[in-house]
# Entry
Amino acid sequence: MLNKDHPRYQSLVYRDKIVKAHEKGILANSGMIAHGRGETFDYLIGEETTLNSKNTIDVAACYFLTRKNPVLSVNGNTTALVAEEVATLSKLLDIPVEINLYYRTPERVKNIEKVYNELNVNEILGTNEDEFIDTPDLNGPRSPVSIEGINKSDLIFIPLEDGDRAEKLVQLGKETVNIDLNPLSRTAQTSTVTIVDNIVRVMPLLIKSVENLMNSNKKELLDKIDKFNNKENLNTAIQDIIQRFK
Ligand code: ATP
Ligand code: MG
# Structure
């Protein structure tokens, strides 16, 4: 039982979700370590959403609302922490969820598919029944991507993604929206839009932003995209961390 008076209560709640997901066969061992790396950066950014991140979340919403075939690519960590919000976003935008695992095993895929099925997601791709092709020049279990999902799509949401795969997606000409607490990771550095914040804080804000912008005209959304520069965004995120050391 977690003690609500504990000064790091929220952080313990998320750790508990991660441990439970691991026990349920949703999360690989390395996913627990990746969570710890995220926690470190969350400490450094002050465990709150910065003004810069709020703006970046709005830009991400503009991308979702102006691209033809966005897809939400999910792994074990994302599922452990924000499966409900992923399902909500998928319904709101009427876009598929694709299971895309670094350590892909039929068992884990099945367990994750069950989570999104229970949340009534309309279209789940990357399941064991799907057809796959290999990501060019990427070997091993993280290489296969669903033909209907990532391969067809023009905008891919890749929260907490691995750098090798993110780089390959960009080389394939895909646009990517990433959530990563580490502004220096290769995924953060190569994505089209990088939200440097904790996925648990981002998802509710992203859903709200999509709802707010849904009825805006396309030109307004494209203008907001035009004004955005991911290198500047990442530099601001790094400066925000440096400020906290002063
Ligand atoms: P890269 O492969 O992009 O160079 P990496 O090898 O350092 O990065 P991975 O383990 O491949 O990292 O991916 C996990 C990433 O997810 C890490 O950068 C970590 O900071 C980030 N992360 C972990 N938990 C969260 C979270 N709750 N919210 C946002 N980001 C997170
Ligand atoms: Mg990596």
Observations:
- The first helix runs from residue 9 to 23.
